[in-house]
UniProtKB/TrEMBL annotation:
Keywords: Signal. It comes from the Bacteria. Residues 1-24 form the signal peptide. This is FrrB. It comes from Phocaeicola sartorii.
């Protein structure tokens, strides 16, 4: 993984925080869409400016395959493609995601020391009022720990949805459980990566339908995020199509 998250992008938020999976059904279902966002903030990290983020997914009986990407409007912004294969039953979910970004080896390079792919496994459970998820990198480009060994970089999150004043809200807190420089990269040598357990994402977001005509509306969302580890603060607005 590139040492500077200012130059590399990952997940998207939708695809990385909650895997794109549908409840079990008896027929194949598919969806396509895109978000226009004022900034690309992922797990408490600033990964880009104004971006278009398309998504495509197919699901059947709890299994799903989804593709998500991001491309910034600036020429130098990194482009990203993520593929997620997942399964959900009831509140339980499990998935594997392949993240890839340009700016290094081409897409079909998978060598252990010659790739821009990162492979991540996820497991989680949605209790309704609370959703818990654990994510761990298991192959591809990854960070290192304090001993400069492969970190198996991990991220854990707790998400609480609620309704208030006519809006749908989501509160989230995320953390890295052990040392890695994959998350929370900074030019500051005193605060470069996570030296151990570190809370790195505290966020609050809300969504609202913006009515365009009597029969057409566009979902809009806003999200405030702070990262206690890097002392970063972000406010993002987006539209979904």
């Amino acid at each position: 993984m590139k040492k500077s998250f200012k130059k590399a992008t990952f997940l998207s938020a939708l695809a990385i925080v909650v895997p794109a999976m549908s409840m079990a059904q008896d027929k194949v279902e598919a969806s396509v869409g895109a978000d226009l966002v004022s900034g690309y903030i992922w797990r408490g990290q600033d990964l880009g400016g104004v971006s278009i983020q398309p998504t495509l997914s197919v699901s059947y009986k709890g299994f799903s395959l989804s593709a998500w990407g991001t491309a910034g409007i600036e020429k130098e912004d990194t482009k990203e493609i993520d593929l997620t294969l997942g399964y959900t039953t009831g509140g339980f979910s499990i998935s594997v995601t392949d993240y890839w970004f340009n700016g290094g080896p081409g897409y079909f390079h998978y060598g252990s020391h010659n790739t821009n792919h990162t492979f991540e496994a996820q497991i989680g459970y949605d209790f309704g009022p609370l959703a818990l998820n654990w994510y761990t990198n298991f192959a591809g480009t990854d960070g290192v720990n304090n001993e400069r060994d492969r970190a198996y970089s991990s991220y854990i999150s707790a998400t609480v949805p609620f309704t208030l004043a006519g809006l749908e809200w989501t509160a989230e807190i995320g953390a890295t459980p052990w040392a890695t420089d994959f998350y929370n990269y900074s030019e500051d040598p005193v605060c470069n990566g996570s030296n151990g357990f570190a809370v790195c994402d505290i966020s609050l977001g809300a969504t609202k339908e913006i009515k365009i005509t009597d029969s057409f509306s566009i979902p809009a969302f806003a999200k405030v995020t702070v990262n206690p580890r890097t002392e970063g603060a972000y406010f993002v607005f987006g539209l979904s199509f």
